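Support case: heme C complex. Customer-provided input:
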Amino acid sequence: MVKNSLSWILILFLLVSLLNNCLNSKVQKEINQKNTFLDNLRKLYSSGDSSQWPKPVLDPESAPTFVEIGHLPDVEFPKDNPYSSEKELLGKTLFFDPRLSKSNQIACASCHDPELGWGDSRTVSFGHDRQLGTRNAMTILNAAFAKSLFWDGRATSLEEQSQMPIQDQREMSEHIDIAAGKIAKIKGYEILFEKAFGDKTVTKDRISKAIATFERTVKSSPSKFDAFIDGKSEVYTNDELMGLHLFRTKAQCINCHNSGYFSNNRFENVGTSLLGEKGEDLGRYAVTKVADDAGKFRVPGLREVSKTAPYLHNGYMTSLKEVIEFYSKGNPEYSQKRSTIYEGITLHSQKSGMVRMLELSDEEISQLEAFLRTLSSKTKKIDLPELPK
Ligand code: HEC
Ligand code: HEC
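Agent response - structure generated as follows:
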């Protein structure tokens, strides 16, 4: 009897350990497979040749204009406003000079602070008399690569853009001619204008050109992402690597956030316009008056994005995780009526078909976030210009 049960126990023990072995080797096999997959992915993405990367998952809508992500190209300066270091210095000085504002207190740099990723880290900005605006200040980093400026693209060049905040009642609130007149009266500016433009005449046009020239030099230096795709295969963690892959495949971010600037420079509706709600923003419609453009915003570039919280045109989201979770749910526009009546016209917010339920796991969400963080470069220390007297 005892002998019998002992042999049963022995058999049972053997069976269990056999099963355990099988399971272990299955788990081991899976781990090996995963490692081989990651090793392969790492090799392809850090090969230095993006044509070897896995194919991106694109919607037919984005395919015709698609440009692969990669390094930022060189900045092009317009023919009628070529670069010179003297013009850059003048532009930088003006950018930091509060005397362009009515109160003599607010400079461009008040809302585009180099220590805050060239933004202001606020939900929406405040300007003249501490009035609040309605939109989040965009970084001016890499603005040279934006085909149009502002969340709704209402300025078509940096030259045109630069006069707008000076005149905006809620920002610097100064008439541009008065601003130019004030600068012309400052003796110390004469030499700067002369070096930049050949003579000391101050005009609003020259102010714009100088500021725009300076802004074109505010460009990201190479990030961890740039080093990785150039062949430094060891700089990425597995999570960052998987995040890059998800960005181009399952999560389909690359439909809109593409090219070296990480934006297709188009206007898209991702379901953030709050039409019919408090805080509604018509977005691109306000510029074009085309009904389809209601609720569309310019696709922002994602370089340096970890430095430019809060996010979206209205600064509603405080963290990258929140933004990615929102995308994962397909940007459902929960409580919105999604339509509004504006100047007698009913406008609907029609979300892009490229925004859909992604059902990302928590792990995938954190991998995407880890990848986005590799798009930031080291913050450069800026030597503040001396303001002329
Ligand atoms: C009071 C805060 C404030 C001041 C001052 C200010 N800006 Fe801005 N800036 C903003 C906000 C807010 C936006 C986004 C506005 C929008 O999209 O409607 C913006 C957008 C921009 C953009 C667009 C970037 C892009 O990618 O499209 C540029 C360029 C810019 N500002 C440059 C300047 C310059 C140059 C000055 C000084 C002449 C200036 N700003 C002064 C708050 C400010
Ligand atoms: C259909 C085009 C489209 C797709 C697809 C898309 N985005 Fe966006 N993204 C936008 C637009 C447009 C905005 C600006 C929306 C706003 O301001 O209300 C934006 C804003 C963002 C922002 C905030 C940036 C800032 O400076 O405020 C982040 C971060 C972002 N997207 C990441 C992603 C990620 C990650 C994915 C993939 C999961 C993704 N996007 C997919 C178009 C898109």
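Residues 2-45 form the longest helix (44 residues).

Case will auto-close in a few days if no follow-up is received.
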